[in-house]
Amino acid sequence: HVFRKGSLQFTLESLETSCDHDYVEYFRKVPNSVLLYTFRVVKLAPAFTIDIVVKVLKTQRLMYKMVNIDGCEFLNNPVLSKVLGATYRQLVVNGSFFKCPIKPKVYYLKNDITAALLSNFHPAGRFQLSMRVRMAESRKPYVMEMLWKYKIARIK
Asked: Could you tell me which residues come within 8 angstroms of residue 90 by beta carbon, excluding any fewer than 6 positions away?
């Protein structure tokens, strides 16, 4: 998965998904699809928080960190955060935006965050971006996680 914007080239090296198997039963790629992922919420989620962390892959040096973002507040008003709002719009499938409380059912996301990630401020190199969804009711560190590993190169 390679994407170009101006003088930057984004290469997605991998995307790993995981879940707690308690609030979220599964979180995986849809068979025979390139960008589509599915997860099943099995217990009502009245509130949740989002943590987003970007690190340099080799050294694990912290590049960017936003933690304890109120998930319901964000879903009700995605324009509160320009970067997060753009990323969220890239993840949503067929305009099916999420609403709180998150009800038990099967949901879909598309792994298309490349355009949202590419800014002229992003340095070249290899990075990992993790997005974790946490719930106070869960004993696990997170109920869902997406971990992207990617490379940014400057093209002349």
From this structure: 110, 112, 113, 114, 115, 116
